[in-house]
């Protein structure tokens, strides 16, 4: 009986101890969970580039955005990879066309933002016109805006130039002297061609030769271009064939007038009569315009540089006075026309 009482007493003493042990273990378990969560947050901070310090609690919204960020990054990498592949194909195509490695690097560096396929399309059109790699590179260096042209505009302009006879390699000189032939307005080209055909009466073949040999005429004012031809034809007695052969239209009007009129004053040049005859043999046009000033004075004019300088100053003064008189005459004509017009409400005299 005494033994039974001792066992009951011992059991009652174990109950507080058991609950105390359970509470202590539960507390330890909670602390372990909190420690684990803290370590996880620290590791997350380290993996994203931060230190081991405390990191703020990650909001659910930010976690939801992470897949989208990864998707955008993937798309960016794929786009870069695609661009690199396209660039490699373009480089291979350019090398097959005959461009050297140096040429390819130059072309790709002229307009870095240009899409590789756009570059290839534009270059292909120029190659089809009969151009070699070297003039193509020169054209793009002088006129980088060529790379920005819509491919359809490029094709239309190429077709028009072929109609003018500027295909099959004749475009090389044109691009050297006037690379803007592809970017200038179609109407401007047509006006110049119209002046040569209709005002100056050159044949279609001669117009092609002029555009090939003297592409600078494309930049000329239409009225000045017509006057330049009239001066050659009527004042100097140069026919259409010689105008084309001697590249007369590429020289400035100032240079032509100075040398021609200086020879006239010296009695070394005469305007041919209706039969094309002169009292003195006129020097060849190439000996007047194609040579340097020193050679012109020594061999053609047989005169000194000082005399030529004085003449040029006198000629410039005469030109200014002539232009002034023409302006005064035009003003006088306008005033007379205004005086002749009746005022409002006034009847004209019968």
Which features characterize this protein?
about 350 residues; mainly alpha; 15 helices; about 0% strand; elongated; disordered N terminus
Offer a concise description of the structure:
The protein has helices spanning 2-47, 60-97, 101-110, 116-128, 133-142, 151-163, 171-177, 186-199, 204-213, 222-235, 240-245, 253-265, 286-289, 293-301, 305-340. It has 350 residues and is mainly alpha-helical. Helix 4 (116-128) packs parallel to helix 6 (151-163).
Characterization of the model:
There is one protein chain. By secondary structure, the chain is an all-alpha fold. Helix content is 69%, strand content 0%. It has 15 helices and no strands. It has helices at 2-47, 60-97, 101-110, 116-128, 133-142, 151-163, 171-177, 186-199, 204-213, 222-235, 240-245, 253-265, 286-289, 293-301, 305-340. The protein starts with a helix and ends in a 10-residue tail after the last helix.
End-to-end gap: 164 Å
Major beta-sheet overview? none
- Helix % is 55-70%
What is the C-alpha radius of gyration, as a whole number of Å?
A: 44 Å
Which consecutive residue ranges, at least 5 long each, have pLDDT under 50? 1-12, 14-19, 42-64
Question: What does the secondary structure layout of this molecule look like, with pairings?
Answer:
Elements: H1 2-47, H2 60-97, H3 101-110, H4 116-128, H5 133-142, H6 151-163, H7 171-177, H8 186-199, H9 204-213, H10 222-235, H11 240-245, H12 253-265, H13 286-289, H14 293-301, H15 305-340
Helix pairs in contact: 2-4, 3-5, 4-6, 8-10
């Amino acid at each position: 009986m005494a033994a039974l009482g001792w066992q009951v007493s011992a059991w009652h003493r174990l109950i507080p101890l058991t609950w105390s042990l359970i509470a202590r273990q539960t507390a330890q378990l909670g602390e372990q969970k909190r420690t684990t969560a803290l370590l996880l947050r620290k590791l997350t901070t380290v993996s994203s580039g931060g230190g081991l310090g405390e990191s703020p609690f990650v909001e659910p919204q930010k976690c939801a955005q992470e897949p989208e960020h990864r998707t955008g990054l993937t798309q960016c990498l794929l786009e870069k990879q695609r661009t690199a592949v396209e660039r490699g194909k373009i480089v291979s195509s350019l090398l097959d066309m005959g461009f050297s490695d140096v040429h390819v690097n130059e072309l790709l560096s002229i307009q870095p933002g240009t899409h590789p396929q756009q570059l290839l399309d534009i270059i292909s059109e120029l190659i089809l016109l009969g151009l070699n790699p070297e003039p193509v590179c020169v054209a793009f260096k002088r006129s980088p805006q060529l790379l920005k042209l819509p491919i359809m505009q490029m094709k239309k302009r190429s077709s028009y130039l072929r109609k003018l006879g500027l295909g099959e390699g004749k475009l090389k000189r044109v691009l050297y002297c006037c690379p803007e032939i592809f970017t200038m307005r179609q109407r401007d080209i047509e006006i110049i061609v119209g002046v040569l055909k209709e005002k100056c009466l050159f044949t279609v073949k001669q117009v092609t030769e002029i555009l090939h040999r003297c592409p600078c005429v494309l930049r000329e004012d239409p009225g000045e271009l017509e006057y330049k031809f009239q001066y050659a034809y009527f004042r100097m007695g140069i026919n259409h064939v010689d105008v084309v052969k001697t590249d007369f239209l590429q020289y400035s009007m100032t240079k032509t007038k100075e040398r021609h009129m200086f020879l006239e004053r010296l009695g070394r040049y005469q305007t041919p009569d209706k039969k094309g005859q002169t009292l003195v043999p006129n020097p060849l046009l190439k000996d007047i315009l194609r040579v340097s000033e020193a050679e012109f004075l020594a061999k053609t004019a047989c005169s000194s540089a000082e005399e030529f300088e004085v003449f040029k100053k006198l000629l410039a003064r005469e030109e200014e006075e002539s232009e002034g008189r023409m302006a005064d005459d035009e003003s006088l004509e306008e005033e007379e026309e205004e005086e002749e017009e009746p005022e409002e409400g006034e009847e004209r005299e019968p």
